[in-house]
Design brief:
Distance between the termini: 39 Å
Mean pLDDT: 87
Strand content: 15-25%
Strand order of the largest sheet: 4-3-2-5-6-8-1-9-18-16-15-10-12-13-19
Low-confidence stretches: none
Radius of gyration: 24 Å
Number of helices: 18
């Protein structure tokens, strides 16, 4: 019937085709102007040209740059208001720590100064830091610390599941709220999309303040998929912080040995809590569009016992500079002996990839640990496309086989360590709200190094000669997936 209509009125079809061509031309111009990343620009252009209609839909779902819109202008303005409440502490802490630890930080001064300049992130001293292995250790420590909270508990999570762990934590939060502790809970509306109204209403009725970040009204047409809040943060009484790769979900405590999850989290007590608090309030105001009364009680780190770790925070998001990406490449280029990286998704931006290859060719001990099988066929294939050039540049690559390794860690030489929420992919390093914690502490470095070496027992190392023998079809599919990697 449609064909007959257009056969009868061919000029209408010609008109629609002309309008479509005009629309694609206009959209191509918008993509070229708005998208700074060259590979991403080419990927979107190929999509809208070779996948009519579908390619346009994909671009509007994943590619529209909201960071330039008024949507994020509001957040930038509120960030500045909150920063004014802590700027004196930040300036004093940063310079005090630099002056006291010049020799210890000597090899990484470029990284430290970059983060301070790019994101007002100070390096702080006197922090007590613990490495928590897997969800079993994390949640045991979380429940222990939260039970002692007296003033406030702030939580910000990408994934919070309505399961055994999630409900146990919710029960604790509701109980503390009834005791008069101020509870604020931020969750990503995509990652925690299955929480359900009943669960959230129960929290609110108990006095817990709850808000999604980037609320999704129509999930099938989610227009903010790019800018997710991928952070995992708990702040207790302005002094204690939990952060790292572990979300709130039963799978992280490994109830099923056949679906083993390997992950790393941090517990920090000390001055570093102030910057995490700043990050939390920035996203709270962004999510709720309300600026709460922020008293000094939220930044009361001085009542903690001094520790030995120097800590600095690298935070990224659509409202900031790409601090995580640039600080990662800077730290890699500062290495003199070794670089051990663990990431569940390896689809790096060129800046980080080139830094890793340069380190490998320079004769450093450079090792990358990734899952043998990821949780996405296309993502896994795209990652596989990078391993040959890493091996050619003297980088050792290890496939973790025991289960899914979800940790995001990096150690450089004997003092520098990074534990964070950011994967080594485009989405984490350019689009999402992320936070990585940089620790300058030989003891923490040694613990993470020992953990890496221990995990190598559950790995298969791949070698260039055998890797090159993969079938041509696999290689073709991997490189095809790599073309789409800017969009994954």
């Amino acid at each position: 019937m449609v064909k007959e209509f257009f056969d009868q009125y061919p000029y209408i079809l010609l008109g629609l085709e002309a309008l479509y061509l005009l629309g694609v031309t206009f959209l191509a111009g918008k993509i070229i102007i708005d998208t700074r990343n060259t590979s991403k620009t080419l990927a979107y252009l190929l999509l809208i040209i070779f996948l009519p209609i579908v390619g346009i839909i994909i671009y509007f779902v994943f590619g529209v740059n909201f960071s330039k819109n008024q949507f994020y202008t509001f957040k930038v303005e509120r960030n500045e208001q909150i920063y004014q409440k802590v700027h004196q502490y930040i300036e004093e802490t940063h310079h005090k720590t630099l002056n006291a630890h010049q020799e210890e930080l000597q090899n990484f001064l470029l990284t430290v100064n970059f983060l301070y300049s790019a994101g007002n992130a100070p390096i702080s001293q006197g922090n007590h830091t613990e490495v928590l292995i897997n969800g079993e250790a994390k949640f045991e420590k979380v429940f222990e610390v939260l039970e002692k909270a007296v003033h406030h508990i702030h939580l910000e999570y990408y994934i919070y599941d309505n399961d055994e762990v999630g409900n146990r934590l919710a029960d604790l939060l509701m109980r503390k709220a009834k005791q008069g502790v101020k509870i604020r809970f931020l969750y990503d509306d995509l990652g925690s999309g299955k929480l359900g109204r009943k669960f959230l209403r129960k929290l609110q009725e108990a006095g817990v303040e709850v808000s999604p970040v980037n609320k999704i009204t129509f999930r099938l047409l989610a227009n903010r998929v790019n800018y997710r809040d991928h952070r995992k943060i708990i702040i207790v009484d302005g002094t204690e912080v939990f952060t790292g790769g572990i979300n709130v979900s039963d799978k992280y405590i490994n109830p099923n040995p056949e679906q083993y999850w390997r992950d790393v989290h941090l517990y920090i007590k000390g001055e570093a809590a102030v910057y995490f608090q700043f990050l939390f309030f920035s996203n709270w105001v962004f999510a709720t569009e309300k600026l709460p009364e922020i008293s000094t009680s939220y930044f009361d780190y001085k009542k903690t016992e001094p520790g030995r770790s120097l800590v600095q925070v690298a935070a990224s998001g659509p409202d900031t500079r790409p601090s995580i990406m640039l600080s990662t490449s800077s730290a890699i280029l500062s290495a003199q002996k070794r670089i051990y990286i663990v990431t569940p998704y390896f689809i790096p931006v060129e800046t980080v990839l080139n830094a890793i290859k340069q380190a490998g060719l320079s004769g450093l001990d450079v090792r990358l640990m990734v899952p043998k099988s990821g949780d996405s066929v296309i993502v896994n294939a795209a990652a596989y496309s990078y391993y040959e050039e890493l091996l050619e540049n003297k980088v050792r690559v290890f496939f973790y086989k025991k289960g899914f390794i979800h940790a995001k860690t990096m150690i450089v030489d004997d003092h520098f360590s990074s534990v964070g929420t950011a994967n080594m992919d485009v989405r984490s390093q350019e689009l999402n709200f992320e936070v990585n914690t940089l620790i300058f502490d030989p003891e923490i470095n040694q613990k993470l190094k020992n953990l890496f070496i221990e995990d190598m027992n559950d790995c298969e190392e791949i070698f260039l000669d055998t890797w090159k023998k993969r079938s041509k079809f696999k290689v073709f599919f991997e490189h095809l997936a790599r073309l789409l990697s800017p969009l994954i």
